[in-house]
Design a protein that fits this description.
The protein has 190 residues and is an all-alpha fold. The protein is 76% helix and 2% strand. The protein contains ten helices and two strands. A hairpin with a 4-residue loop joins β1 and β2. α4 runs parallel beside α7. The protein is globular, with a radius of gyration of 18 Å.
């Protein structure tokens, strides 16, 4: 790996780590790019070479974690359905406080972010299976799933990540033919 590539990877990682530290200390909507760059020890230009704003940074951080529920980087393969389901449940369980802290008081952004997050989850499941759901089906599922997720995070309802994920996987299993799903389980590359 070239020295400049290593430095760039380190800069991006420093920005993400600084962001995670700040999210634990203050409300997301009060975090500034200057605070992130000061804590990371990088310039504002460096920040903007990776991210448009703090919302873009947040989206990138969460998307990478969600992708990790479906793709195993260490052995270059898609996870089996049950494995990815359990990883998704663990993600929501482990990150409940983080997600709740980030979105407290950011109602409009929260709704759009969770909707986009659920669309990403559905897209990853489709890529993994090799089967495309009808577009309206994705939008409908993402809307329902994001409402469940928001309800669990902010209204202290009994809908747990397990229930959320069970709804998702039940719908996917219903819509993706068994043969397509089984073929996807056998594949080791995207």
């Amino acid at each position: 790996m070239k020295k400049q590539t290593i430095r760039k990877t380190g800069t991006r990682r420093a920005i993400i780590e600084a962001f995670r530290v700040l999210v634990n200390c203050k409300d997301f909507d009060r975090i500034t790019v200057r605070e992130i760059t000061d804590l990371a020890g990088v310039s504002r230009n460096s920040f903007y070479s990776y991210f448009r704003n703090t919302e873009d940074l947040l989206n990138d951080v969460v998307h990478d974690r969600i992708l990790g529920c479906y793709w195993r980087e260490e052995d270059g393969r898609w996870c089996a359905w049950d494995e990815s389901k359990e990883a998704l449940i663990a993600f929501f369980d482990e990150n409940r406080d983080f997600l709740a802290d980030v979105f407290r008081g950011s109602d409009g952004f929260r709704r759009s972010f969770f909707f986009e997050l659920c669309l990403d989850i559905l897209d990853l499941a489709e890529i993994k299976s090799g089967f495309r759901l009808p577009e309206n089906s994705n939008i409908f599922l993402a809307g329902g799933l994001s409402a469940l997720l928001t309800d669990w995070l902010f209204n202290q309802r009994t809908v747990s990540p397990r229930a959320f994920t069970e709804v998702l996987y039940t719908e996917l299993r219903r819509r993706i033919p068994d043969e397509e799903r089984q073929n996807a389980e056998k594949e080791t590359v995207p």
